[in-house]
Specification:
The protein is mainly β and 278 residues long. The protein is built from 3 helices and 15 strands. Strands 1, 3, 4, 6, 11, 12, 13 and 15 form an 8-stranded antiparallel beta sheet that branches.
């Protein structure tokens, strides 16, 4: 399907940027005269588990033990340490189970739970959606919490995580970042809240070399590659011509390149050839 239209890129004024970042995750306070808002309806398992016809979905409800199983395999490539992964029955977005990751600081304390994409139609654009719940804010140092192996880039990873307190994509092969890690670039992304579920969506068009990202249904301007270099956003990314990813797996977990640890949960994962939604 054609890319979802996005508004023109604009560089916000510094004051607006700081105000926007400071407001993320802040709860609105009703006035004394306002009636209390009704709590949002909890998502049902059937709604959360809707599957794309050309992909798969996972709400972890069929996991019958503490260790991820079925299509999912836990691992820590190259070295292992304190990182752990398990199916959790205490915290879930829908149903009664989720994937819990206890990731330690430092590279060897990483852990991921991954699945191949052999049963997903990757001939067109690849769409992914997951809900994630962090315990600690994204740190200043670089971290990864989702990775996709790129067969067209020597098997290196296309990585989603954070740096300088905001979401970013990182290309392992040359360490290019999206957005650029300038103050203006970071301001074009956004942090993630803690203690609540956040819906993250992405679209990777391998044929065109395009990438888009949404958080809770809203496009993130700084997390998009559209083929035309934009300073502070994808200028660095597009300096290497011909990026045409061919993604073969999806891994969820935690990897810290500094000393930052986090406990996080994933739930209601879906991958397919069309937008799945939150």
């Amino acid at each position: 399907m054609p890319p979802t239209p996005r508004p023109p890129r604009r560089r916000p004024a510094a004051a607006l940027v700081l105000a926007a970042l400071a407001s993320v995750g802040a709860a609105g306070v009703p006035t004394a005269a306002a009636a209390p808002a009704a709590p949002p309806s909890a998502p049902t398992a059937s709604a959360a588990a809707q599957c794309p016809p050309d992909g798969f979905c996972e709400d972890f409800e069929d996991q019958d033990g503490p260790q991820p199983s079925g299509r999912w395999t836990a691992g820590a490539p190259n070295c292992s340490g304190t990182g752990t992964a398990r199916v959790d029955t205490a915290v879930a977005r829908s149903g009664g189970r989720s994937l819990r990751i206890d990731g330690g600081g430092g590279y060897c304390n990483h852990v991921f739970v991954g699945t191949p994409l052999d049963d997903v139609d990757t001939s067109g654009a690849l769409w992914g959606r997951f809900h994630v719940r962090h315990t600690t804010p994204l740190p200043a140092a670089h971290v990864t919490f989702a990775a996709l192996r790129d067969a067209a880039d020597g098997g290196k990873d296309l990585r989603m995580g954070g740096q300088n307190g905001a979401l970013q994509w990182n290309r392992e092969s040359d360490d290019a970042t999206l957005p650029e890690q300038s103050p203006n670039g970071v301001a074009m992304s956004r942090p993630l809240p803690t203690g609540t579920w956040t819906c993250v969506e992405f679209r990777v068009d391998g044929a065109a070399g395009h990438l888009e990202t949404w958080v809770d249904g809203r496009a993130v301007e700084g997390l998009a590659v559209d083929g035309t270099p934009t300073h502070d956003i994808d200028g660095q990314w597009l300096r290497r011509a011909g990026w045409r990813p061919s993604l073969t797996d999806l891994r969820l977990g935690w990897e810290s390149y500094g000393g930052d640890a986090d406990t996080l949960w994933f739930d209601d994962v879906a991958v397919g050839g069309s937008r799945i939604g939150c």
